[in-house]
Amino acid sequence: MTKTYRIAMIPGDGIGKEVIPQGQCVLQALAQKTRRAQFEFESFDWGGDYYRKHGVMMPDSGVQTLKSFDAILFGSAGDPDIPDHITLWGLRLKICQGLDQYANVRPTRILRGIDAPLKRCGPEDLDWVIVRENTEGEYAGVGGRVHQGHPIEVATDVSMMTRAGVTRILRYAFELARSRPRKQLTVVTKSNAQRHAMVMWDEIANEVAKDFPDVTWDKELVDAATARMVNKPRSIDTLVASNLHADILSDLAAALAGSLGIAPTGNLDPERRYPSMFEPIHGSAFDIMGKGLANPIGTFWSAVMMLEHLGEQEMADRLMAAIEAVTADRSNHTRDLGGAATTEAVTAAVLRALDV
Ligand code: ATP
Ligand code: MG
């Protein structure tokens, strides 16, 4: 009996609506070809259009509804006519926090055939996984404004970190580092300037590291980490940082690997109490919507991460091999990679590559 996975799809806004159906198409083809597992998809029309009709980005019962699925494939949330804090907090962050997806994981590699901006940097020089704390820290939503609009106005954003939250993300990062060939972890903080929570990170890292004597690890300040990513990419393997710091570092990583359109993310509940959510890292990109310019590779690679999380390694490997066969041929590159291929042409190429 082949297993059937129930996948919730949330295309969201902008090019999310273009790339997520391509992901569905590729996953269905993969299931047919490998006969390893089946997928049952259900699509949810949450996002900007839903907000215009209902005044909310998703229904109150939305998080509860998602709990019955095996995994979630997400497009993007963002709309030029709706303030960012509504689109972000009303959908994506609500799901991440509601399903306690505390580990945001972003693998970064230079795929075959991609021109990366770093000179003398090829696939063997850049193979990272960035782990981002995904539920608290700088994006905990703690803070406020008093005397709004007056000269004496005060506004605060409190970076709230808990011992439990920091411990579990560091533990996850050490475990992930241990599972990779180089068994190496870089813990990034800013403990020279942020003298409370970040110092606690450093202390907890020292404690957790004792349980991982086989992992080589070091500490780096976030500003120095940006330079190191550019100057010594080989010196990094697995990297872990707070919500804000890793948000920035992982966009830098995506750009260094060639394009925002390629990079994938998993928002994971490592304890598997709830479904995890997989999404391309790019946003809604309204500037290219409806033109066939959206690169679907970020969605396909996210589907690979989803398959790995579901334990379907063979399907994951087959899809990743197809993706790399496609990127290796420049005629399959979309405009963000300097080519002229359309979204649908890239999907068609991946479907052909799955045949061989
Ligand atoms: P959001 O507000 O939702 O983050 P955005 O308009 O800022 O959306 P991003 O997705 O963050 O757009 O991307 C920035 C730019 O990179 C886009 O304007 C677009 O031109 C380009 N881009 C992003 N994703 C892709 C993609 N998948 N394929 C091609 N180009 C992309
Ligand atoms: Mg953006």
Number of helices: 11
Q: Please write the string of helix (H) and strand (E) elements.
A: EHEHHEHEEEEHEHEHEHEEHHH
Helicity, as a percent range: 25-40%
| Shape label | globular
For the biggest β-sheet, the strand order reads 2-1-3-12-11-4-5-10-8-9
> What would you report as the Rg, rounded to the nearest angstrom?
20 Å
What compounds sit in this structure?
adenosine-5'-triphosphate, magnesium ion
Main sheet: strands, sense, barrel: 10 strands, mixed
Q: Which runs of at least 5 residues are low in confidence (pLDDT < 50)?
A: none
Structural class: alpha/beta
What fraction strand?
Answer: 15-25%
Distance between the termini: 25 Å
What is the typical, i.e. mean, pLDDT? 95
Secondary structure: number of strands: 12
Write the layout of secondary structure elements.
Elements: E1 3-12, H1 16-34, E2 37-43, H2 48-54, H3 62-66, E3 71-76, H4 84-98, E4 103-109, E5 127-133, E6 137-146, E7 154-160, H5 163-179, E8 184-189, H6 197-209, E9 216-221, H7 222-231, E10 238-241, H8 243-256, E11 264-268, E12 276-280, H9 297-309, H10 313-327, H11 343-355
Parallel strand pairs: 1-2, 1-3, 3-12, 5-10, 8-9, 8-10
Antiparallel strand pairs: 4-5, 4-11, 6-7, 11-12
Helix pairs in contact: 1-11, 5-6, 7-8, 9-10, 10-11
The structure holds adenosine-5'-triphosphate (ATP) and magnesium ion.
